[in-house]
Amino acid sequence: MTDAGQCVRRASHPTAALGIIFPLDERVHDGQTPSHRRLTKRICVAEPAPGPTHVLPIPAWLDCDHVGLALCMLKNVSSWNFDMFLFNRLTHGNALACLVSHLFHLHGLLKYFRLDPMKLRKFLVLVQEDYHRRNPYHNAVHAADVTQAIHCYISEAKLARTMRPQEVMLGLLAAAVHDIDHPGVNLTFLRNTGHYLARVQRGSSVLENHHWRSTLARLRESEVFEHLVIAERHELEACLQSLILATDISRQSEFLSRFQLLMEHGALDMTDAAQRHLILQISLKCADISNPCRPWHVSHRWGERVCEEFFRQGDLERRSRMPISSLCDRYTDTIPTIQIGFMTHVAMPLFEAWAQFMDTHLSRSLLCNLVRNRHRWQQLQHGWNGGSNGCQQQDNTPRSWHNTFLVRW
């Protein structure tokens, strides 16, 4: 990677390919495919229907056959039971671009910041295309899921009445881009294989710095903020960078300690911009690891996907005759053991602090789901034929579990 603003595109084209935006099996009518007919029209944001209870507008590039179903789902976009896997199917793999565009309208951000819908669309498609579809977990669907989660958090009264429009936009953007161009392996693997990212992005938060630089390149390429004065643009970019870097899970203890200390001393002041930024960072961290707090039918799919990504790294290490990283051996590590350890030693402390701060029905529901889902994994663990090592790992101390997850995730 060269300068962030002049980064070479990983994807084949800077705009959306028809095979990505629309289904490939469309039939030709009157010499044109439906995709071609739609693209010859002016691509813009759909106008809201008249009346007091109209559905908020969504991107107009959704396929005609599924736009109605997608709209029905978006009516419940603030529900914690929102199924991102289903929404991704209805939008033909465009969940991230469609969701973020809808949320920008829902929060009135296009009008407030005078954003060009076409430039925003270009930015979202660029970002979506820079997520690796081959990754079972760190892909655009995960980014969309995190974005929907942070929308739920910042829509609650306690944050909705204190967060400024700029902070709402930054929260949504940071969630959408926080894992852009993720390679699907951890930093240890990159270093052991001499990957260019480990050489170029030196220091701490290597992957997160790469996500930030990739985001900055897409912002420059799309020119979505070019109409803002330089000082405003630089302020937005600095805050966005801070949010993305905060998703480094190895810094969880740092952020959690600051958060808990402020609550213990009753020093949280939501009129203070710096403290609101900290809350936004914490909310993004909660959204990033919120999968264990989703309803079981969604949560267990995310659990299986993240473990499959771990195991694929282990397969690569095995084929390369490298030491297999912790939690990455599909023949000895088990999905229930990994999930139980992560929920207990990483997710639980963070969501307990979040529930203490928010004290709302949603924050308490997240904890209840977390406890129930952990119990389901414990039930599965008893009958899991995953080898003996999964049972041996249960004897580890909480601190060793904690350190293992902070290195691996």
TrEMBL record:
GO terms for molecular function: 3',5'-cyclic-AMP phosphodiesterase activity; metal ion binding. Zn(2+) 2 binds at D179. It comes from the Eukaryota. The active site is at H138 (proton donor). Zn(2+) 1 binds at H142, H178, D179, D288. InterPro entries: HD/PDEase_dom, PDEase, PDEase_catalytic_dom, PDEase_catalytic_dom_sf. Its EC number is 3.1.4.53. Pathway: Purine metabolism; 3',5'-cyclic AMP degradation; AMP from 3',5'-cyclic AMP: step 1/1. Pfam families: PDEase_I. Belongs to the cyclic nucleotide phosphodiesterase family. PDE7 subfamily. This is 3',5'-cyclic-AMP phosphodiesterase. It comes from Eptatretus burgeri.
